[in-house]
Amino acid sequence: YNLADDKAAGQSLDIFFLLICGYMVFLMQLGFAMLCAGLVRHKNANNIMLKNVLDAAVGSLCWYVLGYGFAYGTSDHRSNPFIGNHDFALTHTTQVNWAISHPEDDPGVDAGGYAGYFFQWAFAATAATIVSGAVAERCTFVGYLSYSIFMASWVYPVVVHACWSDIGWLSPWVGDGVKVENNDGGEGNVAAAWEDGAAILNTGAYDFAGSGVVHMTGGIAALVGAVMLGPRLGRFRDGKVSDTMSGSSTVLVVLGTLILWFGWYGFNPGSQLAISSKADAAIVARCAVTTTLSAGAGGVTALLFRFWRSGCFEVVYTCNGVLAGLVGVTAGCSLLEPWAAIICGVFAALTMYGFETALLMLQIDDPVGAFPVHGGAGMYALIFNGFFVKHDYVEEVYGYPPSSRRYGWFYGGHGQVMLSEIVELLFIVFWVGTNMFLLFGLLKITGKLRVS
Amino acid sequence: YNLADDKAAGQSLDIFFLLICGYMVFLMQLGFAMLCAGLVRHKNANNIMLKNVLDAAVGSLCWYVLGYGFAYGTSDHRSNPFIGNHDFALTHTTQVNWAISHPEDDPGVDAGGYAGYFFQWAFAATAATIVSGAVAERCTFVGYLSYSIFMASWVYPVVVHACWSDIGWLSPWVGDGVKVENNDGGEGNVAAAWEDGAAILNTGAYDFAGSGVVHMTGGIAALVGAVMLGPRLGRFRDGKVSDTMSGSSTVLVVLGTLILWFGWYGFNPGSQLAISSKADAAIVARCAVTTTLSAGAGGVTALLFRFWRSGCFEVVYTCNGVLAGLVGVTAGCSLLEPWAAIICGVFAALTMYGFETALLMLQIDDPVGAFPVHGGAGMYALIFNGFFVKHDYVEEVYGYPPSSRRYGWFYGGHGQVMLSEIVELLFIVFWVGTNMFLLFGLLKITGKLRVS
Amino acid sequence: YNLADDKAAGQSLDIFFLLICGYMVFLMQLGFAMLCAGLVRHKNANNIMLKNVLDAAVGSLCWYVLGYGFAYGTSDHRSNPFIGNHDFALTHTTQVNWAISHPEDDPGVDAGGYAGYFFQWAFAATAATIVSGAVAERCTFVGYLSYSIFMASWVYPVVVHACWSDIGWLSPWVGDGVKVENNDGGEGNVAAAWEDGAAILNTGAYDFAGSGVVHMTGGIAALVGAVMLGPRLGRFRDGKVSDTMSGSSTVLVVLGTLILWFGWYGFNPGSQLAISSKADAAIVARCAVTTTLSAGAGGVTALLFRFWRSGCFEVVYTCNGVLAGLVGVTAGCSLLEPWAAIICGVFAALTMYGFETALLMLQIDDPVGAFPVHGGAGMYALIFNGFFVKHDYVEEVYGYPPSSRRYGWFYGGHGQVMLSEIVELLFIVFWVGTNMFLLFGLLKITGKLRVS
Predict the structure, then answer these.
(1) What is the distance between the alpha carbons of residues A220 and A434, in angstroms, rounded to a whole number?
(2) Which of A45, A235, A419, B276 would bridge with B10, disulfide CB 3.0–4.6 Å?
(3) Is B339 a member of any domain?
């Protein structure tokens, strides 16, 4: 009997967990594709389909060459809280990092080996593909290809580095004693990059599975794209919204929505990155429950609210309500009580509805509601965390003891949690907004952005 | 090296198993939605899609507030063999119940922690959504919403409590020594609720993954709904079936069927609830094999039988044959030999065919065949178990030693197994039939049931 | 605390891994069905759907009765390097084979218990269903049914036995010391069947997840079928390809492609058959990464190459490029570096493109490109392995030490690896080609092959 072999079972379990969850997140590519196909006019489905396939294909190469290195690459001598600058093309990633569940055994330089790399790729592809629907029916293929490369190689990785890596300037993990020591090579490194123990506001932004990192990033890019492209021809006439542009198939919308909901069980619970310890398993199971309740509450809220406003029960609004509930709970799925997840879903759907209405008033044409669902509910999710993250769960997930009061206002926590969330929100709006403005502006000036 | 940590790996494995299987069962929502979309006329697809999304969304809230408590909630002082009356809104569910694979360590009050709650929710949503196709194209949205809430909050949980909970009056687990002690707090509780050792007929009804609990419950509700709504206008003319109502898309039918088949690998093997012990793993793997063989045999049988009757090879009949095979093996997937699973699938498809023919003769309009597939093959499954459950497997799954002869007639077991199955069958017909008659009747009287 | 229980966790993990991967491979049936539905004309979708469902259903029965026994059945007294001849209808398969990860404990006769049987069935069904698209729109149902039975019962199992079983004449596992002893009952057996240590060319053909075994087998059968059926009426006019036969739906093509990509994460990483040891986990994670990179590179290459040739960005070519990348990396996913996987995908897509062009020039009508994608890229994959399999990985996967130089030419390995791959390639072309020629010829002569 060999103890080392035995420990491997727990560690293999984590690798397996990470891979399966990554596969499910990858399947969200299909969900987005079908959702878009259902929401655009039939004649443009061919075009949008190509963009969705490309996000995964192009993203796989960009993430390998640049993205992962910018997001998570750190070395002892060149660490940087703003951007990674090491480990491009998997040059320094070990195939399996046994440190995931037993960090004391293997102080490697990377956070998850090949399985972790794979999991993070699936997230990058998700962030990129959120935009495709918002620019549907009028963006050139070359324009979209440029965007997709830019997103997966540069814009998204910087956000990830800031919020999730061990030395990111917004990360709650930075300066966090044991974790830093084990993951990026000793305190010397951290000290060089950032003050010891100096997570922002001494807290860091809590964004567990990426309402901000992934969904806001996609959503803000979608908004910039939609604004700079301008509306589809005939979308707004005499200040009114034309009815003739409605989507081609509610069957495809439901197909897309339910696949996304399924994939989200990889996205949210999977973000714990491990399941082999008792605490891991508890967090993972809690994420599955909160994700479900917020999705359900979001769907029911959107259905009823829309019925109140329009007198109709509408499947597209219901689906967008489900998605808003999912986006809304993504940042806090491990940190919220089930009842709080229901409240989260209710207001996420209303937030989505509000942003959707605002876009129509402003005559911004977002054919699939990518900004209201991902940008709007993503921003809301960060604020919601400021109120409702629970002490015990913050301790379980981030290691801050309840005595530190780094939990939600609702429970009497201090306001630094909320403030950190707002800093993340503003950073993402600024970083993604500026970069996408430059990219889409350049494409527009050179006449490569819009067709028809 | 810490032994407790190590044990956690096995327990985490069970949590992971339960969650993944739950995700797959959730995906069956998509399967049912696509199946319905393919079998109704195109113009009504929008309507039916909304109902399918709602089953999951509404179900998530109903199951949280009432359903799970009615199904599994028990306490020392108020246990009840008919209905649960405790642990509503997850108030008494621990996040992770380590008792799943090592009951001696943690005699908690609930059966599976948050992961178990999640898994059971996915089943509840499945039971509810079976009905949507049967009432398609003529049921009001408000009527369906009422049904969906009623099913997930009240009708289905009572069936689950009776057949699957540790103190249910039909459950083979009740009075079963070790299990009872560990799961609901001691023999005192059981004695108060039910006679010691008194599973019904000293045996209990074997319904491993819910041919009765889930599929018959959905199927009987579908029948009552279809009867009380009456047929679609023009479905039957001069005593003949109109041809003009055939479904819109065989592609969607196949999409739905194959997703359901995939999801069934969560449904059937997952019902073991654990995989970490050698016996668990053997049972889980066996379920995967029997499920496959019965599905295949059902599909081939329906194809050939339909060809014999009509001269055509028809994809919709083949798909319904696959589904009948899956429903037919659900009750016994862990208890049947592979060859018996093939026999099971053959007659499940014929049973489905018979019920389908009978409905047409009786001019009952069930557009997707929900009753023949789920109700008919579900009833058949319970009877089939009475004949074919094998001694070794009964011991492995339920703990009854072969000497007790609580196995199938075919192997020389005693008739109490069959009798218990029939009691379950009659109970579900009566309970679901009565409740649904009252609900749909009330809706009909108040004019809220039918459109067009 | 019980050590035996504990070991079970690792072994249960392997069973779980094998089953989940098998479920994902099964889902590829849906991917192929949707891909075909999107690529044939709408009026023929009904017909092709039935064939796809039948492959899984019929395959489940054929694999049980004959296929698995021909593929893996061996006994001490009758072992045979050409074909298995034992263990039909699961008569000698134990339910769980604990030998998977700890072979010293249980020298059973079969390779994976019921879970292994299930996993292999999913592969058999995949091989069979590849053909459906190539013969679409003109093959009779009876003809296809005959083919499907023949493939799953006889043609495919013989290929599996040769390349993957422990005594197959092309297998790298044969005569491999420890493995042989544990899996088929001692050296006596091997000696009787085949010279000791005598893998072909002392090496054996490396085909990790079956670019040859599964995809070439399906692809060659598809080519023979397409040739013997002749083109669809009106496909070629005056030596030109008619435009009027293009597929009905790019949405379905993308749906199918992304489901196939998802399922491939079961197909390739799952082919390690275990994940519980450190080496297993490393191999599995590597497979996920290489599979992703090759798929992405294939998609991008096909997109750009097609754009260069035709001036259009075309989604169908992009999807076929993704699939060619996936097929191309299947043989070597565990044996290639990530950068080599990118190269693999690039040339896989070009190979597919070349074969597609050649088929059109030869006026062979393969409506979905089954031969270019599966046959063409499958052959390429074996050759690519001859160049690029890496020493360390060959040691990890097949146990040959780097000093044996049984790795790719690119790294300075000896040419026997390449030669073995070519022998496998020729064997599959010959075996599948001959058998399918006989079957389709017999059907043609008897007038049962073609409609319309």
Answers:
(1) 10
(2) B276
(3) yes
Measured between beta carbons, the chain C residues lying within 8 angstroms of B6 are 6
Q: How confident is the model at residue C180 (pLDDT cuts 50, 70, 90)?
A: very low
Q: Cβ distance C219 to C432 under 8 Å? A: no
**Residue count of chain B:** 452
Six-digit token string for C259: 């489901």
Three-state DSSP at C328 gives: helix
pLDDT confidence band for C248 (50 / 70 / 90): confident
Domain membership flag for residue B306: yes
Q: C139: which DSSP letter?
A: B
Over A95-154, what HEC string results? CCCCCCCCHHHCCCCCCCHHHHHHHHHHHHHHHHHHHHHHCCCCECHHHHHHHHHHHHHH
Taking the C-alpha atoms of residue C110 and residue C182, their distance in angstroms, rounded to an integer, is 9
> What is the pLDDT, as a whole number, of residue A7?
55
In residues, how long is chain A?
Answer: 452
Distance (Å) from the alpha carbon of C222 to chain B's nearest alpha carbon: 22
Q: Note whether C171 and C111 are within 8 A (CB).
A: no
Rounded distance between C-alpha atoms, residue C19 and residue C12, angstroms: 10
- Report how far residue A136's alpha carbon sits from residue C444's, in angstroms, rounded to the nearest whole number: 49
Asked whether residue C53 is assigned to any structural domain, the reply reads yes
C-beta atoms of B60 and A265 within 8 A: no
The Cα–Cα gap between A117 and A121 comes to 6
What pLDDT sits at residue C25? 98
C247 pLDDT tier (thresholds 50, 70, 90): confident
* One-character DSSP codes across B353-422: HHHHHHHHHTT---TT-HIIIIIIHHHHHHHHHHHH--HHHHHHHH---GGG--S-GGGT--THHHHHHH
Nearest chain B residue to A279 by CA distance is: B96
C74 lies in some domain: yes
Nearest Cα neighbor of A284 from A25, A98, A21 is: A21
Say how far residue B429 (Cα) sits from the centre of its chain. 14
CATH code at A408?
1.10.3430.10
> What is the CB neighbour count within 10 angstroms for residue B81?
20
Q: Model confidence over A271-289: pLDDT tens digits?
A: 999 888 888 899 999 999 9
The residue to which tokens 């044959």 are assigned: B321
Cα-to-chain-centroid distance, residue B380: 13
Q: B197 vs A35, which has greater pLDDT?
A: A35
Contact (CB<8Å) A281/B117: no
Dist CA A77 CA A374 (whole Å): 37
State the pLDDT at residue B78: 62
Residue position matching structure tokens 């399999």: C389
Alpha helices in B273-337 (DSSP H): 278-310, 315-330
* A137: number of Cβ within 10 Å: 23
- Token pair of A422, please? 């707002």
Chosen from A287, A292, A301, A336 to mutate, greatest number of chain B CBs within 10 A:
A292
C390 and C352 in contact (C-beta within 8 Å)? Answer: no
**Residues C376, C382, C388: CA angle, nearest 5 degrees:** 125
List pLDDT tens digits, range C295-311. Answer: 999 999 999 999 999 99
Q: Which strand (E) or helix (H) includes residue B237?
A: strand B236-237
Six-digit token string for A139: 């963006």
Residue A438 sits at the chain C interface (C-beta within 8 Å): no
Residues 21-80 of B with CB under 8 A from A: 22-23, 26-27, 29-30, 33-34, 37, 45-46, 49-50, 52-54, 56-61, 64
Name every chain C residue with its beta carbon within 8 A of the beta carbon of B338: 64, 89-90
- Tell which B residues from 305 to 364 touch A, by Cβ distance under 8 Å: none
User: Rounded to the nearest 5°, which phi and psi values hold at A15?
Assistant: -60, -45
CA–CA separation, B418 vs B385, rounded Å? Answer: 7
- Segments forming the whole domain that contains residue A213: 3-445
Structural domains of chain A, count: 1
